[in-house]
Amino acid sequence: MVSGSAIDLMVDSGDSAEWIHKVLLVSKSRLLDPSDVCAGAEDVGSRPYSLLEVYRMMSRIVIGLESAGTGLRKAPRSLLLVAAVALVISRTPPSASSADVNRSQAWIGTWATAPQAAPPGRFQTFRNQTLRLIAHTSAGGTNVRIKISNTFGDEPLIIGGAHIARRAAGADIDPTSDRTLTFRGEKATRVAVRSMVTSDPVELEVPALSDLAVSVFFPNATMVTTSHVLALQTNYISAETGDCTAAAQFPVTKTISFWPFLTGVDVAASPRAAAIVAFGSSLTDGDGSTTDANRRWPDVLAERLQQGGEQNIGVLNEGIIGNRLLSDIHSPRQAGGPFGAVFDKLGPYLGAAGVARLERDVLAQTGVKYVILALGVNDILFPGSFIPGSESVSARELISGNRQLIARTHKKGIRVIGSTIPPFENGIFRNPVINVYTPEKETVRQAVNAWIRSSGEFDAVIDFDEVVRDPSHPTRLLPSYDSGDHLHVNDAGSVAQGSAIPLALFDPRVRAVLPHSGSRKEPRL
Asked: Is residue 97 domain-resident?
């Protein structure tokens, strides 16, 4: 609203101020309820209106007031222009894009997940339904926006409405925190094929390490072509009863354990804020950890940063199950492995090769200043099981792929932290049971790890291998960290990994002085 003091600053005369004030009061009531009086008046709150549109509408109101004997004296139309300006300003919503956030703030990602394609014939469909998706934040902020991805869609994605709120418990929200999301000022949006949209920001106090509920309404039959499969998070679906995005108590009909279409949540934080991207495979995605417990190693790192006083750092998990550094299902010579049928079934879920998805999943993330590279294990394990044994990769090839990621990431001014590949002796794929270990694969792992530790080409190195291996049998996981498949760690192993990362790596004072060159030897951390 425009206060009387604000009006007084715009005009000299007290009578003029009274004139403008009365017109504003009547105009606002008409604009908020256009059916009330003026033919042609519209709801200014529903879309941006030009000054000329508001001026013309107010002119009709003034003529009506003057002729109705309201005591409103005739006044210069220049004052009407002042009133129109005041009304337009008063109806302009606060902060609406990265340019709108105060210069004392900066945008960072607080939560993210990598989009994955669904295999043909395995699409789930929503129709006239609302999804309530839970995102666990890393850093906090005062404004928030979301990212909706139609990355693998062959048809436009129609969003009928979306809300965001702080979660209370289960599928329910704190109603005082509920905010309507818009996209370029509109409540509904159309996400083009193979693209993504970011919502307009809304003011909301987002605590660090808290759960946000993002509710999205799909009015039409919508096939889930883009999602993140291993959410390890319970999400909620309504019946086919329409838009429930604002429901404080969500009418749950079904639960799911994946994230359809939602791929990011950003917050406005301090200018010192930064984001860390964890770029890896299922070892990063959290396979082996407990559902709804947020015990992936990136979650543990986020907790430690908050507890250690680094409240302005977000941690974004861009891990994908089965992801490889160098190859994917579309690479040459992938067919014909002993368990090729399994690979064909799961292949789309496993994502594009790391060298291909780096741009989307790392370099394009909001506020990214650091990346932890954790790819390569599946390049070693897949040949001879899921793909032909003739496609075995060498340590030299994996080193070359890592160097490519380092060079491309350094060009963007992002610090690159390497991580060693944990042991996988007797590692199995569970369904069906496939033993993926051989001594030859262990030799490649050892060679790659030796280079990661000693090359000096990373800005720092985290030795996950040393953290989770069995000291008495270093080629296998410590039994107390083994989730049961001898490949993925359990919650205790994730805590050990997340706790082994030195927080000093993310000190902004260190970020300001570290060189990008790989010419120096970097100590193992």
From this structure: no
H or E segment and range at residue 124: none
SS3 462: strand
Q: Please indicate, yes or no, if residue 251 is contained in any of the structural domains.
A: yes
Q: Residue 7's pLDDT is what?
A: 28
- Measured CA to CA, the distance from residue 249 to residue 167 in angstroms comes to 10
Query: In Å, what is the CA distance from 380 to each residue of 51, 375, 481, 498?
Result: 63, 10, 22, 24
Assigned domain for 105 exists: no
Q: Are residue 480 and residue 358 in the same domain, yes or no?
A: yes
Report which of 139, 76, 137 is spatially closest to residue 105, judged by C-alpha positions.
139
Contacts of 260 (CB under 8 A, 6+ apart): 124, 126, 131, 133, 224, 226, 227
What DSSP letter does each residue of 226-293 carry, written as one string?
Answer: EEES---S-EEE--SSS--TT-SS---SEEESSEESEEEEEEEE-TT-EEEEEEESHHHHTTTSPTTS
Query: d(Cα 419, Cα 280) in Å, to the nearest integer?
Result: 10
Domain boundary among 238, 269, 300: 269
Report the distance separating Cα 310 and Cα 272, nearest Å: 10
Q: Could you give the angle at which helices 14-32 and 51-67 cross, rounded to 10 degrees?
A: 110
What is the spatial distance between Cα 375 and Cα 439, in angstroms, rounded to a whole number?
20
- From CA 202, how far away is CA 217, in angstroms rounded? 18
Q: What is the CATH number of the domain that holds 503?
A: 3.40.50.1110
Q: Write out pLDDT tens, residues 74-128.
A: 555 455 555 555 554 444 444 444 445 566 789 999 999 999 998 877 789 999 9
* Residues 375-433: tens digit of each pLDDT: 999 999 999 999 999 999 999 999 999 999 999 999 999 999 999 999 999 999 887 88
Asked which of 72, 90, 108 is the last residue of a domain, the reply is: 90
Q: Are residues 477 and 336 in the same domain?
A: yes
Angle among Cα 495, 500, 501 to the nearest 5 degrees reads 110
Domain identity same for 258 and 398: no
Q: What is the 3-state secondary structure (H, E, C) of 149-179?
A: ECCCCCCCEEECEEEEEEEEECCEECHHHCE
Cα–Cα distance for residue pair 80/51, rounded to 1 Å: 11
Task: Check whether residue 191 and residue 288 sit in a common domain.
Answer: no
**233 and 206 housed in the same domain:** yes
Q: Is the pLDDT of residue 315 over 80?
A: yes
Q: Which domain holds residue 482?
A: 272-525
Task: Tell me: do 218 and 333 sit in the same domain.
Answer: no
Number of domains in the chain: 3
C-alpha–C-alpha distance, residues 149 and 366, integer Å: 15
**Count of other CB atoms within 10 angstroms of residue 186:** 13
CA distances from 160 to 103, 215, 238, 382, 466 (A): 32, 11, 14, 42, 49
Q: Are residues 434 and 461 in the same domain?
A: yes
Encode pLDDT of 486-519 as tens digits: 999 999 999 999 999 999 999 876 654 444 433 3
